Amino acid sequence: MYRVLRTSRQVLPLRRALSGLPSASLSGGGATGAATAWTEGEELLRDSVRSFAQSKIAPHVTSMDEAGRLHDSILPDLFEHGLLGSCIPAANGGAELSFTEACITVEELARIDPGVALVVDVHATLVCNAVAQWGTQEQKALHLPRLAADTLGAFCLSEDASGSDAFAMEARAHRDGDVWRLSGRKMWVTNAREAGLMVVFANAMPEMKHRGITAFLVDPANTQIGKTEKKLGMRASSCCEVDIGGVELRDADVLGGVGDGYRVAMDALNAGRIAMAPR
Ligand SMILES: Cc1cc2nc3c(=O)[nH]c(=O)nc-3n(C[C@H](O)[C@H](O)[C@H](O)COP(=O)(O)OP(=O)(O)OC[C@H]3O[C@@H](n4cnc5c(N)ncnc54)[C@H](O)[C@@H]3O)c2cc1C
């Protein structure tokens, strides 16, 4: 059944592989019970992703660690096998896995290369979830199919002086006529080097403190990608500074409402932080 994972992206490989199998991820206890066993579908997914990671990622682990970057084949292979569309609804071209299933994919990728797992985790559980949960119909129709097919996402929240205390950010969104202009610099942005879409957080109403924080959908081509951090581990994934100064945006680029950014971030991080545990 999991041979379909090797077919083209048009057939929603992961979703189709799981169709007809039990979808509940908890055995015995229902939605509030303890996770004591995997379902048949989860076991099949685990085997499939394990075999993918062994054949497509393992041959490149050492060279990626030495080079501090992804091998050219990795992103096309991840997209082709549906692994970057795990958190995207089937209606938008994704695999629409359950959260447990998405965590299983991260765990299996991390067995072979935690850096590749980090790439997938940030893209799927932070960026795709944020767009799927907070996007307008137009934003979802525009961005989710490409996030499932060929466009990597990055999540730009942290700054030099606001990591744990992320909402103390200094990035600003200034209203200028009918556009928004961003200022500031984001730090440690995973996937920055390869991303085709960024979720960027900036404060549009600093007097409102965290209630002024606003999320924007940004084309990375309009930012300046700065230095890449030389990490001690997970070196396949890029981790860069991103200068957002001068980025000009329209109201249609606001994700959620103006001032909803801290809720967008918390919703995404609630999933993203759990999905970090498997890697
Ligand atoms: C590999 C990697 C990838 C990352 N990817 C991204 C990304 O894609 N996007 C993004 O926005 N950010 C990213 N980050 C940044 C990450 O979110 C921050 O590193 C994190 O929020 C912690 O911030 P900090 O590094 O500034 O540490 P600090 O906030 O300075 O914390 C340093 C230490 O102090 C502790 N501490 C902080 N505040 C308190 C307190 N009030 N009480 C007690 N202890 C405290 C912390 O637990 C920690 O041990 C990434 C970081 C890493 C390492």
Can you give me a brief rundown of this structure?
The protein has 279 residues and is an alpha+beta fold. It has helices at residues 13-18, 40-57, 61-67, 74-80, 99-112, 114-134, 137-149, 261-276; strands spanning 153-156, 172-176, 179-183, 185-190, 197-203, 213-218, 224-228, 239-243, 248-249, 254-255. The strands form 3 sheets. The protein has a 4-stranded mixed sheet with strand order 1-5-6-10. A 3-stranded antiparallel sheet has the order 2-3-9, with no helix packed on it.
Fold and architecture overview:
With 279 residues, the chain is an alpha+beta fold. The chain folds into two domains: 14-19 and 38-149, Acyl-CoA dehydrogenase/oxidase, N-terminal domain (Butyryl-Coa Dehydrogenase, subunit A, domain 1, Orthogonal Bundle), CATH 1.10.540.10; 153-258, Butyryl-CoA Dehydrogenase, subunit A, domain 2 (Beta Barrel). Helices cover 37% and strands 17% of the residues. It has eight helices and ten strands. It has helices spanning 13-18, 40-57, 61-67, 74-80, 99-112, 114-134, 137-149, 261-276; strands spanning 153-156, 172-176, 179-183, 185-190, 197-203, 213-218, 224-228, 239-243, 248-249, 254-255. The strands form three sheets. A four-stranded mixed β-sheet has the order 1-5-6-10. A hairpin with a 2-residue loop joins strand 2 (172-176) and strand 3 (179-183). Helix 5 (99-112) packs across helix 8. The longest helix is centred in the middle third of the chain and has 21 residues, at 114-134. The radius of gyration is 19 Å and the shape is globular. Residues 1-12 and 22-30 have low confidence and may be disordered. It binds flavin-adenine dinucleotide. Residues 122, 155-158, 163-164, 188-190, 231, 234, 239 line the site of flavin-adenine dinucleotide.
